[in-house]
Amino acid sequence: MNTFKRRMTEVWVYPQICKHRDGISDTGKYLSFLDTQGQNKDLLIYFHIPFCETLCFFCSYYKEPLHKYTYEQKKRFFNNCRIELENYAKKLYFKNAKVKAVQFGGGTPSAIEPEFIDLMINTVKDCFDTHMCEVISMEGNVASLQSEAKLNELKGIGIKRISFGVQTLNENIRKKVGIKAKTSDVFKAVETIKKVGFEDFSLDLMYNLPEQTIDDMLNDIRVVDSMGPAYIDVYNLNVFPNTRFKEYIDDDEYFADKPTDEKEIIMFKEIMKSMSQMGYNQVMVNTFSKYKKSPPKTLDLYLNGSDVLGIGPSSRSYLNKRNFRNIPDVDDYNKAVESGLFPVEAGNIASDIEDIERKLVFFSNYTYIKKSEITNLEYFSEKIRYLIDNGLAKEDNEYLYLTEEGKAWPGNISLLFFNEKQRNKRATSFIDALKYKENPYNQDRMGIF
Question: Could you confirm whether domain 27-349 is CATH 3.20.20.70?
Fold first, then answer.
């Protein structure tokens, strides 16, 4: 019998990073491992491009209004991204690195002039071995993806995969959560993506939005299915204290019907049921595909222990058990790089057991794990037995799987594998954010009123 009482959101970072507890004062010392030979793991390079044409209320990722930046300011920023990447590439750690995928996230990378994306791609090719690179992926938005000329240019410079957020097709909800584009724009963007020849594209939906009904959500799924994406990603709404969006949520006159824990779990179970009936594979806990049996390569690399190198403000890296995040501010990022520094704000070093726990923490996002990939399986036997005894997981000789009930509680299952130190850090990080009037997601000023 499942004993979880409140559904927790998925966990994508482990160990936890707490800016006020994990600040890096000496980046040279912290990154000294870069002067040693790496382990020749597959490498995922992630670029955080923080510029957005519009700022959605619900989004907690670090972003900046695009209209505030001139062409020359953008040129300066991308030149610094180039320098940061080149500085890493010069290190012995990356001497034999094999890039398997490149991801442009944000922010809205598709809103940027393709010449800057081209500069980043060419820098990767100049600095690293990319002959085994399987995909260069880009996140976008509805407005910039309606341009056939821009999409042709992006395809020409090497972008192979595109994803963008639909969120919901309910016009009233879209307007009230700060989405500027109309549903007609969504259809136009998909039409243009297909016309240009991008077969590998994914669409994001959100559930448990304020004033969203189960029928709204199921209709969104049916309509998005008709668009023929390679993947549909579904994300629950997160509302963080201190933010303007939390203020809107609490305003009964603005949102009469609010998100609830009960509605969230009911909706997600309905999503899984509906997707299954429509012939979708649940390739990750929140990712579904009719045509593919495995998740996008970028996520596969991230969850399976590959090296992850983040470039740009607020980007995250995981290298040689070093788990770190860059400065979440364009101006401070520029100054750090131009001063010859690696622009790292906070980070830590995972212990041997935390590096092993990371695999189990991410297991619930993947929904299954090969037992032979779990180092020291006996160490986790009590927690695994808890999952099995409570109907959240099952096993055979080779694999541990989440059950249908277990797939509905991924965040809770991830937290089960946190050690006590990391559970405490998660709590103190949240308390620190409240104390310093920050957004708890990234301990920065995103969405703060």
Answer: yes
Host H or E run for residue 206: strand 201-207
Q: How many residues does the chain have?
A: 449
| Per-residue tokens: 299 | 């996520």
Q: How far apart, in Å, are the Cα atoms of 147 and each of 51, 154, 193, 328, 362?
A: 18, 11, 9, 30, 37
Determine the pLDDT at residue 1: 63
Q: How many helices (H) and strands (E) does the chain have?
A: 16, 17
Gyration radius from the chain CA atoms: 21
Read off the tokens for 327: 């400065």
User: Dmax over Cα atoms in the chain, in whole Å?
Assistant: 60
Burial class (CB in 10 A: 0-12, 13-18, 19+), 401: middle
Joined together, the tokens standing for residue 139 give 């996140």
- Whole-prediction pTM value? 0.96
| Domain limits, CATH 1.10.10.920, in the chain | 352-436
For 200, the token pair is 């590998």
Where along the chain do the CATH 3.20.20.70 domains lie? 27-349
Q: What is the pLDDT of residues 7-46, one digit of tens each?
A: 999 999 999 999 999 999 999 999 999 999 998 899 999 9
User: Which residues are CB-contacts of 77 (< 8 A; sequence separation ≥ 6)?
Assistant: 69, 330, 333, 334
Q: Alpha helix (H) ranges present in 37-113? A: 71-89
| Contact assessment for residue 360 and residue 374, using Cβ atoms and an 8 Å cutoff | yes
Contacts of 403 (CB under 8 A, 6+ apart): 391, 392, 393, 394
Task: Evaluate whether 432 touches 390 at the Cβ level (below 8 Å).
Answer: no
* Contact between residue 302 and residue 323 where contact means Cβ atoms under 8 Å apart: no
Q: State the Cα–Cα distance between residues 157 and 136, nearest whole angstrom.
A: 10
Q: Which CATH architecture best describes the domain 352-436?
A: Orthogonal Bundle (1.10)
